[in-house]
């Protein structure tokens, strides 16, 4: 069915007992040796790094993004599987998806149980990811986990320990895996891919600030003072905070800081309903609502916009494009920052 390149980055699927907890230390060949390879699939391995995914940095993620593009520069490659820790898989997968303009699939997978577990889920997930990478086309970046296929956009880790760990709380999965085949249920909606960014010497700082009862602007202002070029405000409800937070957002955006507005609620869109510090006022102050994208992926969208250009207005436009808003004729400069 095809030639698949497995990019190994660590995570639980590559973890062993360290005497006081598990940590990633296995190379890709050891991980691959645990899984059955679908008939007709040939596998090549790229050992990129082996770390627990909470330790990943923007530099790690951009290195992964560039490695994906380098692998796909070979027309003989039919697809890619990325083995990745589950804690930040949703962020890395979405970053790759934002910049992915190739019909060949990039399929992320991992495990909830470590490499040597007798009843581990890693081997089955890796087999399913290989099958998905070998038999699907034109679906963007995917997450194959526990017999299900999800789009990178919107898919987050919803269970800390359970095998069925990933879902889009606001949408449906793309397909199912079973009986040696992948059943595709729907076509995901994706904006035109952003251009591949350079790997900067120092990545732009993007912070998250969560709203809650008694919250004040202290942490948001501290993020700006610390040099944040982007901030994700994790608001309550449909995207609501307080008048004091609105003032802090207005001050930040006036200084060129890109502010994205998401919510701590599991599912549903950010919506402009309430004033007196609600989403109506936050958007008027310059915050960009992120629809159904939650904090981790909203941060990646902000990061991609910051990497695309240094112009504050263009950063706003690129962010809106990454969030799925159409790029219009009036947004021609921003359109130049996406793949033709």
From TrEMBL:
Residues passing through the membrane, by range: none
Reactions catalysed: L-asparagine + H2O = L-aspartate + NH4(+)
Coiled-coil stretches: none
The name this protein goes by in its record: asparaginase
Keyword DNA damage: no
Highest rank taxon of the organism: Bacteria
Protein species of origin: Streptomyces formicae
Residues at the active site: 12, 86
EC identifiers of the protein: 3.5.1.1
Domain L-asparaginase N-terminal: 3-189
Cross-referenced Gene3D superfamilies: 3.40.50.40, L-asparaginase, N-terminal domain
This protein's UniProt keywords: Hydrolase
Enzyme class: hydrolase
Domain Asparaginase/glutaminase C-terminal positions: 205-317
Keyword Zinc-finger applies: no
Family membership: Belongs to the asparaginase 1 family.
């Amino acid at each position: 069915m095809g030639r698949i390149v497995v990019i190994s980055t660590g995570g639980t699927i590559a973890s062993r007992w360290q005497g006081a907890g598990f940590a990633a230390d296995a190379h890709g060949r050891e991980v691959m040796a645990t899984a059955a390879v679908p008939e007709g699939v040939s596998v090549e391995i790229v050992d990129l790094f082996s770390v627990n995914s909470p330790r990943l940095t923007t530099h790690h993620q951009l290195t992964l993004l560039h490695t994906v593009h380098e692998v796909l520069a070979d027309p003989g490659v039919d697809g890619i599987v990325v083995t990745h820790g589950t804690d930040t898989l949703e962020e890395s997968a979405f970053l790759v998806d934002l910049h992915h303009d190739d019909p060949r699939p990039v399929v992320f997978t991992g495990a909830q149980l470590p490499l040597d577990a007798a009843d581990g889920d890693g081997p089955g997930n890796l087999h399913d990811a290989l099958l998905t990478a070998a038999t699907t086309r034109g679906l963007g970046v995917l997450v194959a986990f526990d017999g299900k296929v999800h789009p990178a956009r919107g898919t987050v880790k919803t269970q800390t320990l359970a095998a069925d760990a990933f879902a889009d709380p606001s949408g449906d999965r793309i397909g199912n895996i079973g009986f040696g085949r992948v059943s595709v249920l729907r076509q995901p909606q994706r904006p035109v891919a952003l251009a591949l960014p350079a790997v900067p010497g120092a990545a732009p700082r993007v912070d998250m600030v969560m709203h809650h009862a008694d919250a004040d602007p202290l942490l948001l202002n501290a993020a700006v003072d610390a040099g944040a070029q982007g901030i994700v405000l994790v608001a309550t409800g449909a995207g609501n905070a307080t008048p004091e937070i609105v003032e802090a957002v207005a001050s930040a955006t006036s200084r060129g800081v890109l502010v994205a507005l998401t919510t701590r609620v599991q599912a549903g869109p950010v919506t402009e309903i309430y004033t007196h510090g609600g989403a109506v006022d936050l958007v008027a102050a310059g915050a960009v609502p992120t629809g159904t994208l939650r904090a981790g992926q909203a941060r990646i969208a902000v990061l991609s916009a910051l990497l695309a250009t240094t112009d504050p207005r263009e950063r706003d436009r690129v962010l809106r494009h990454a969030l799925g808003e159409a790029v219009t004729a009036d947004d021609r400069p921003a359109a130049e920052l996406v793949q033709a």
